[in-house]
């Protein structure tokens, strides 16, 4: 498959918004470059005694609005351009959802499924040893992303705390509850995405019992599926990295989860047909939710999508070349920087709880999160209307860039 550079996609999205908002060229050129790039070699002693060296990255993109903020991804396909794109998108996302952060992202080139738990812990701790001077609760605050878990965040906070000599839970979010994590953080991204979808459907005057297919069954995808079902949508398609399942009659997400726990995959779930991850995107559904990796929707399949709404729960699932095709076809794309911003919004709530030492109940957290998502959706829709744009992505970018610019100006940057 043709490799599409996600940073190129990100910069095309930015240029498009810059043109519409008539952004000053000096601001545009500043936004096209990250503030700082860290690339470290991480030596790890493997269980068999051999030493292996992994590549780790942290990109600190922009901190006009506050500390750099964004997740860490463990994946064999991680590369510098991907991390740069993801760090840029975090800067936009944090401004869209209105939390006082800049944008950053990190990653390690590794397939964590090939590592033992001990190896994974040593890798995670060593990465922090190598970057701890460049992160901090008011400097740069990592979090989970693809294949990274609360447990990994706990090891990292512990390592950081040992290095600086004091317990510092606010340096990383997405922690386990027992270590200063927030109620609601685990389901936050899925929950937030469903609030955004609900708000969009309200504006469109929703039809009853809409069907939905979701690509990806990780933390984001499976919680989104649960909340979608709870909201009365019919979940007809699901997939994970091993393949997908389809049933026009719909399926019970909880039962599918139990199946996946037992079998280690979705494929073979009784009463469903097998579909590939590519075919899942082309199913006859009302709503399509890419919740896995980048570049799933491109020029070749954008014409074949049948859904009328796409909710981008993954980061960067739509290549820049596909956007005009989807727009021309009248498909509403709810952009990643809005749709999946519930994760980082709840990271912000976790961080404020850590800094104040006062903790909220799950109801309180989700209520605050819901307000962030409602406000962000309204702001994006309004900006798009104000600029007479059909696509919400450009509206979201204009909103975010205006907010970042305002902070840059206020600080005299
Ligand atoms: N990795 C998530 C994202 O892409 C969450 C980042 C965070 O909480 O800092 O938005």
Automatic annotation (TrEMBL):
The keyword NAD applies. GO terms for molecular function: glutamate dehydrogenase (NAD+) activity; nucleotide binding. Keywords: NAD, Nucleotide-binding, Oxidoreductase. Substrate binds at residues 69, 93, 347. The record marks 145 as: Important for catalysis. InterPro entries: Aminoacid_DH-like_N_sf, Glu/Leu/Phe/Val/Trp_DH, Glu/Leu/Phe/Val/Trp_DH_C, Glu/Leu/Phe/Val/Trp_DH_dimer, Glu/Leu/Phe/Val_DH_AS, Glu_DH, NAD(P)-bd_dom_sf, NAD_bind_Glu_DH. It comes from the Bacteria. Residues 182-412 form the Glutamate/phenylalanine/leucine/valine/L-tryptophan dehydrogenase C-terminal domain. One of its GO terms (biological process) is L-glutamate catabolic process. The active site is at 105 (proton donor). NAD(+) binds at residues 189, 219. SMART domains: ELFV_dehydrog (SM00839). PANTHER family: GLUTAMATE DEHYDROGENASE, GLUTAMATE DEHYDROGENASE 1, MITOCHONDRIAL. Belongs to the Glu/Leu/Phe/Val dehydrogenases family. This is Glutamate dehydrogenase. It comes from Candidatus Doudnabacteria bacterium RIFCSPHIGHO2_01_FULL_46_24.
